[in-house]
């Protein structure tokens, strides 16, 4: 019962001359999502943002930008190519396409190298792999047009692997509910006034989008024992929150290892469980983004259980 | 300039009624090696063993057993199927087929699952994955026939990732030689009276086989910066050696992480560099083998260098 939780991600900022992306309407975004082999399950909106919950992750659309995350064996590069074809390359001010290392990369429809080759036929950019191939690593493509990011344009991601303990047990149980998961993760407490939209998958799995003004958060949970994965992503200024959200999620979900990826993010590791930071990287992009990647491991030995095949 | 160093491995013990495997002759073993898309480069022999150095790793043939290791994108499962077809399933007393996790599994000709499916059509057995998919892991298939291993039938493997320092620099340099690598690794000192056969590949890479009576050792080095890998394997009783061979190799090659795999092996971690054992497993097979797998990481933080793509 394997499901690939690891996400692919595309984020695009359009030029000021481009009409509002929200005005493109739901059929446009349905088509975008379909290109990745996903579908829209539900949505919430406020004055700034339309947040779509997908069959495989999330889509957030603001007037000047969008963010789409998809997991499983989705073909997100095809959505990206479709967007460029639809609006024209000149509409794009800045774009990134990213892939986390997958649990089972050979089951994916394409490799990052193949995605990169297709993207570069439509959009010029730089690309990197951060991290060793035999450990957690992250692939990043960024357009190389002149662009200057606002310093407040920050994104923080926490990717948790091999969750353990009571919360993990609950997320693998038959009697869970959306309200129960929100409470388990203390989401209402940590993220007051957020408008949430969540979904519990059969037999397992949970997704939630939340928006508050221009701010967003999203969590995706793949709880299956041998390949559990939970991702949290937000554009909140985490340093300005009353609660240390990453530390709290780590304490609740107790992952064996986790990665933190930030774009201009202020991150504080003091509340993390006792850990070894196996590796970290700081990469400055010309457009004013500082990309950080760090891979953490709990400071304890694990007895590995052989998995019968 | 990527090369997959991670090996696949088949080891077969034949029944007493089976003629000597050495008497099958070189053309038989050439065909076996060709099935994996490799070729024989050279060989050494003594009264007990024929040791073949391959274009991609090694083959050792004794009267009652053989061991074949191949790396790159070789198709070792096809060699295994060919052997079973040639000698008949009833000639097999015990067989294991193993694969280490690859750096780039999506470039392989087949997945372990696919190999397993093909093998099980000819030979019944149990199979396991040991270790998490997002970290170092090992795949193991073993025949499930009645068989009783001799307690002296031990194998020890040391797999080193991301070698660093002077020895790594030498192995990536233009001016290396076979004698220089043997000296670098202190092989004559650690393994006296062994008959060696080694080969330096262009532009990089080194393989050596060594035999002494019924004992064998083999080392394969893929030094390339972003995916370096060095494997050492032997049936020596390591606990009985005057020099702690694993500790010495770790000190010389200074890998960022390493795995130890043993079949009935007595292993001592006291001489290892300061490390965290991320996970370990002990698995008892009915045929009298205790399989151990441990994944170690140097106890230090690594600054990751983004790799341009």
Automatic annotation (TrEMBL), chains A, B:
Gene Ontology terms describing biological process: spermidine biosynthetic process
GO molecular function: adenosylmethionine decarboxylase activity
Top-level taxon of the source organism: Bacteria
SUPFAM superfamilies: S-adenosylmethionine decarboxylase
InterPro entries with a match to the protein in the record: AdoMetDC-like, S-AdoMet_deCO2ase_core, S-AdoMet_deCO2ase_CS
Gene3D superfamilies per record: S-adenosylmethionine decarboxylase
Coiled-coil stretches noted in the UniProt entry, renumbered to this chain: none
Name of the featured protein: S-adenosylmethionine decarboxylase proenzyme
